[in-house]
Amino acid sequence: MIRNGLLTISRMQMHLPNHIMSAFEQTINVLIKFIELYLHEPVTHDPLLLHNALTVLNHIACSVDGQEKLFIGRVGVIEIAIEIIHRFLIKKTSCEIVEVAWTLLWNITDETPENCRRFLEDNNGLQTYYDCLELWSDKRDLIRNMLGLLGNVAEVKELRHHLVTP
């Protein structure tokens, strides 16, 4: 059922983007529910489901700005992306899912200082960055996405002090 729902949302997003955007909040909430089910059900699901849900969230994040990006941050997408990254850090395995999670974080922090703050201060994002850099320093695309997010943080004057060590 989860797979079919994600496929439907993916198809709508690709072929009828206005329909997805007209139900923006509902779409985000459904995607979050899919991901939470994936992460917290005792049943093992196909990792492609998680990848697809994150990819759709990322496409939506690229299509919005302002209040919509703030909404994405407020409803817990930052926390979910970091939880996913932490799961792979614990396993010490990297994959496209980690890359998509960082891409999503990069996109929802772009031009959105509150989401940058939420990533950095509320979710210990800098430590997540360091942990990923230590484990996956050879993954160029992943590092690019991580640095893109830090670039967004660096654009927020009030947060720059987090990026400098005395």
Automatic annotation (TrEMBL):
Q: Does the keyword Iron apply?
A: no
Cite the Protein zer-1 homolog-like C-terminal domain residue spans from the record: 1-165
What SUPFAM superfamilies does UniProt report for this protein, alphabetically?
ARM repeat
Q: Which UniProt keywords apply?
A: Ubl conjugation pathway
Q: Which InterPro entries match?
A: ARM-like (IPR011989), ARM-type_fold (IPR016024), ZER1-like_C (IPR055142), Zyg-11_UBL_adapter (IPR051341)
Keyword ATP-binding recorded: no
Q: Which GO terms describe its cellular component?
A: Cul2-RING ubiquitin ligase complex
Pfam families cross-referenced by the UniProt entry: ZER1-like_2nd (PF22964)
Q: Matching PANTHER family, A to Z?
A: PROTEIN ZER-1 HOMOLOG (PTHR12904:SF23), PTHR12904
Q: What is this protein called?
A: Protein zer-1 homolog-like C-terminal domain-containing protein
From which organism does this entry originate?
A: Adineta steineri
